[in-house]
Amino acid sequence: VSNAYGTTVSQAATLTVYTNRDYFTELFNPSSNHVNDLSYHILTFTPDGSGGFYRANCDPTNAFPSNPSGIALSLGDDNYVQVNLVSGAQVSLYGYNFTSLFIGRNGYITFGSGDSTMVESFANHFNRPRIAALFDDLDPGSGGTVTWTQLVDRVVVTFQNVPEYGADDQNSFQYELFFNGVLRLTFLAIAAQDGLAGLSRGT
Question: In the chain, where does DSSP find H-type helix?
């Protein structure tokens, strides 16, 4: 199209609109009769090209898929530890690749920066790239173990028999971050009735 201001060239454009995007996150609140029910389940998130990025599957289990032994981490009050992958390995969250991860004492893994937040909420969860199996006020300093290891095809992080802060209970869960982009969260006995579990792209 030509006019007094010059020539305008029009081209066809394709706009893809995603609907029903799933944020794969659940906040448990026993005061509203919504109790954590993840004990003895595996959640697997597989990239599938959809608007939600992943396809989710839930299956029963009674054991961790990966050996929970590994490098033991010392996690103080509401802090985190950065671990760096070796041999060029990368893990992926929503298509973004990372060569390091931050393991938080309060049951989550973050990327890009660490987090020490102990109060689980949607706002706190979604404020950075995060994978949360049990975002809660946990206390590995008073019991249980937190370990990590890098295998040939994945990174494994395991919280085993870790109590909530100020409680005499135990919570066991495992993260497996595969180098092909698949994420797997395994829950054994979870005593906590509250907490948050899910994925975050970050803001």
Answer: 122-125
